[in-house]
C-alpha cells in the first residue's frame, strides 16, 4: 500500500476536526488562563448582543409609540389656505375624504392662548373641531379620564389634557379662563379677548407635552374666540398608512378644487425623528464596540491556545493532517465561542425586550423611583418593539466579527512548521 493511500486527508469539517475543536474548548489546568479568556470573550459577546438587541428594540418602541401618538393627535397631512380663507372647508373636506386610504379629514381652527384657573396658569394650543369629528379622534375619544364628549358641539365647554388639568387643579365642571391677544379691533388697537369655559371632559394623550397644552372646543366657539369669519385655519388629514403620504398628497392636489398649502408629518417632525434616527445609529455603533472588544479577546485567547498547542499541531501534521484541517480545527474552536455567545445573547436580549415594561415596573417598585418620568422622556411608559430585521442584523454582525477574529490565529496554526514546533515546543 503506497504512502498516498495510507495518508488520506479527512473531509472538511469531519468528526475528527469537531472532536479536536471540542477538546480545545474544555478547561484544563495547563490552559486555565486560555479558558478564562475564552469565558470572558463568551460573556462579552453575549452581553454585547443582548444589550444591542434591547437598546435597538427600546428605541424602535419609543419611536413607534411617539409617532403613533403624535400622528394620532395631529394627522399625517396638513392643508392650509393659499389665496383665500378656507370658508369652503366642508366641501374640500368631503372631497378629500373620498380618497382611498384617507381615514379622517379634520377641519380645525388652531390658535395659541393663555389658560388660567384660580390655582395656576400656563399656555395652551386651542383646537376648534366639529362635534362629530372629536368623537373620531381616537387619541382623545378613547382616552377620556372623566366627563363626556356627547353633544360637544352645543356644550359651550372645552375638553382639556390630563396634565393641564393637573397643573391648573381642574376637574370636570370647573371653569377655565382663556385669553388671546387676537381679540376685537378697537379705535385704540386690538383688545385681548378673555373668556371662561366650563371643562366638560378630561383626556390623556400619553404624551406629556401635549397633555399639558391641549384644549379642544367646538369649532363655532373657536371661530368666535379667534375672531375668524366662518373659516378654518387648517385641515388635518389622517391616513391608514403613513408611508402613503406622498401618493395621497398628489391625489389631494387633483381633487381639492382650489390651491392649498400642503405640509406633512415628515416635514413637520423632521428634526425630531431625524434626531431619533441618529440616536439609534449611535447606539448601534457604541454598543457594537462591546461586541468588537469581545471578538478581540477571542484573537488573544486563540493566539495563546495555538502557542500552547504547537507540539500537538506538529504531531498532527506528521500524522497526515493537512494545513486546511489544522486551520479548520482552530477556526471551529474560536467560532464556537462567538456562536455560543451570540445565541445566548440573542435569547437574553429578546427576553428583556419582550418584558421591558414588566422589568421597569419591578425595578420601580423595588427602588421606589420613577425610571421613566414623562416630563423628560415625553412618553409615560417604557415601550419595546422587536423588529426581526434588526435582530438578524445584530446576529450577523456578531457572527461575522467572531469569525473574522479567528481567521488570523487559525492561519498562524496552519502555517506552523512541524519540525520547528517539535524542536522548540
TrEMBL record:
Q: What is its main location?
A: membrane
Entry keyword set: Cell membrane, Lipoprotein, Membrane, Transmembrane, Transmembrane helix, Transport
Membrane disposition? Multi-pass membrane protein
Compartments, as annotated in UniProt: Cell membrane
Q: Where is the ABC3 transporter permease C-terminal domain?
A: 285-418
Q: What positions does the domain MacB-like periplasmic core occupy?
A: 41-254
Annotated membrane-spanning segments are 33-59, 282-306, 327-354, 386-408
Record-stated family: Belongs to the ABC-4 integral membrane protein family. LolC/E subfamily.
This chain belongs to the protein called Lipoprotein-releasing ABC transporter permease subunit
